[in-house]
Design goal:
The complex is a heterodimer of chains A (186) and B (455). Chain A is α/β, with parallel strands linked by helices and 186 residues long. Chain A has one domain (27-185): Rossmann fold, CATH 3.40.50. Chain A is 24% helix and 22% strand. Chain A has helices spanning 3-13, 33-43, 51-61, 120-123, 140-146, and strands at 47-49, 66-68, 93-97, 100-102, 108-111, 126-131, 136-137, 154-158, 163-164, 172-173, 180-185. In chain A, the strands form 3 sheets. A 5-stranded parallel β-sheet of chain A has the order 1-11-6-3-2. A 4-stranded mixed β-sheet of chain A has the order 7-4-5-8. In chain A, strand 4 (100-102) and strand 5 form a beta hairpin. Chain A is globular and about 65 Å long. Chain B is globular and about 95 Å long. Chain B has 3 domains: 1-14 and 21-37 and 304-386, no CATH class; 38-284, NagB/RpiA/CoA transferase-like (Rossmann fold), CATH 3.40.50.10420; 391-454, no CATH class. Chain B is an alpha/beta fold. In chain B, helix 2 (14-36) packs antiparallel against helix 12, helix 3 crosses helix 12 and helix 9 (155-165) packs across helix 10. The model of chain B has no long low-confidence stretch (mean pLDDT 94). Classes of the chains: A alpha/beta (186), B alpha/beta (455). Chains A and B meet through helix 1, helix 4, helix 5, strand 8 and strand 9 of A and helix 2, helix 3, helix 4, helix 8 and helix 10 of B. Strand 8 of chain A pairs antiparallel with strand 9 (264-268) of chain B.
Amino acid sequence: MSSRQEILEKIKKLRLDQTELPTIPEFKNPLNTEEEFKASIEANKGEIIPEEKLMSWISETGFQKILNFSQLINLNTSYAKIEDAHELDQLQVAIIDGQFGVGENGAIWITNEQVPFRAIPFITEHLVIVLPKNEIVSTMHQAYIKTSSQSYSFGLFIAGPSKTADIEQSLVIGAHGAKSLRVVLV
Amino acid sequence: MSHSKASTDFLRNAEHAKWHDETLWMIREKRDLASQKVPEWENLRTIASSIKEHVLSNLDHLLLEFEANATKNGIQVHWAKDAQEHNQIVLDILKKQSCAQVVKSKSILTEECHLNPFLEKNGIEVIDTDLGERIVQFLHQPPSHIVLPAIHLKKRDISELFHQKLQTEKGNEDPYYLTQAARTHLREKFLKAKVAITGVNFGIAETGEFVVCTNEGNADMGVHLADVHIACMGIEKLIPRRNDLGVFLRLLARSATGQAITNYTSHFRGPEKGKQIHLILVDNGRTEQLGREKFRNSLKCIRCGACMNTCPIYRRSGGFSYQSTVPGPIGSILSPGLDLKKYSSLPFASTLCGSCTDVCPVKINIHEQLYEWRQEITKANPNHAESLSMKLASGIFKSPLAYRISGILMRKLIKNLPDSLIYNPWNVWGKGRKLPETPQESFRNWYLNHRKNEQ
């Protein structure tokens, strides 16, 4: 007997009475979702900036290796064409569109359709997400209802920059992934 | 070694033990603040618990549904009845890829299966990529907490370790500096790895996708750069519907660290073009636990670690004192199911205060199960109740005369004997405890005298 069969047989033999699956209420949050979203992003050590500030930040820092995948802002980038995700190791800034944000925790939904390589939001040194102001839901329940019919192969909630507190519980921003997250609400 | 003996080691460094206790309590307080911000928190706990109840009562059907949907999405599903089979499946995939160095993100299941030593014996280097796990791996230690693997270490220990392993400046204890050194070291490993291993936080039967949560982004750095992703999942990690994620993700990070959500929550439904995802469904004792009615609920655990942070024993004895992969209250009800003899002291490492049950996001009745395990262990090992002191006490309690005489003796003796005699090595109870002040007379005497005066 295969292990698959063996495991399934063992469970079947217990003849457990099937209990009912509860329905999940909508749990809408009455708070102002945009304000709550901003506060959540800041609590996660991300930053909300206006579009002008993004442009001035990029010109001030003099970053050369920038990739812009956003359909919502205009910025021509001239970084070499990427054939393999490993070539992104030196990427300094990636700009991508978020589909929507979640007020209660600052999570922003992105799928494989927004980026040519799944590694991009992680391997880039700095991440910028452009998000339409009117695309903010209040809780995770609405988030999953909103995405229920999507057919992504990879979906991701990003709520802040890469962080760790593994050394004596001291918070450090920039563990393995992006060292900063800037969110531009448009 | 018993839990109490092992905790003695931990308590030897009093300053460090105090720090450990206070730090975990601080995380417990963060959890309180985060949960209080969600008005429907208690409702969410009840729903989460009933969803898991349903999963456990319908596991065979849900596993089949999950397998069918995952396969349809292009995920290769494997089944392992025990740790050995799980490890062999991983090794076979690695061999097929001619992979000699693999990156791995946090997975308690692979710790439970002792995957690392197995792969190393077979000539494969495993690199744990979670910062805390990399630190304990350098020290050849297991994690001491399921969410905070290096919580037993201080920054000066890590600074010294990184000076040796990563050539950081001697004496530089700045957490940012040390983290950047690890980032550079691990970035190189991520870029080279052909295969990446991760755990699974939730598998969704309805869609065949699975979810992995991290704050560091190490799981994603590994799998998106590698050609092959191996995801190791205990069969109890299933949830029926995608919408159920809304409930569990609201509970998980808030319970674990007091964050509203982890910074990365990745949903894997199928492999990236030209790549592979292998998912291993592991039993390893879970179906046995499912058959134990009193302990079945322990399989609802979503591994948040809240019960550890709140436990007065865990905080004061450290994760290593449990000597099991999952320490703390939840480990003390899971581990005896795997090996009753080896873990027989764990259900006694509790005050039964019930704080673990109060904070559990899926409402596992942890303290009641600890009590139940004590009954099982005493039944299986009656010697426990037949120790000399217990026999003696039983004799004294059975005879009113013996009880009265021993009372008179003790009231005299304890007052007059020197401490060195009272707190002798045989008085186990007196370790770290002081005997109460002895009263002038027994309650019986006091009662009789009192009544006499009234009349």
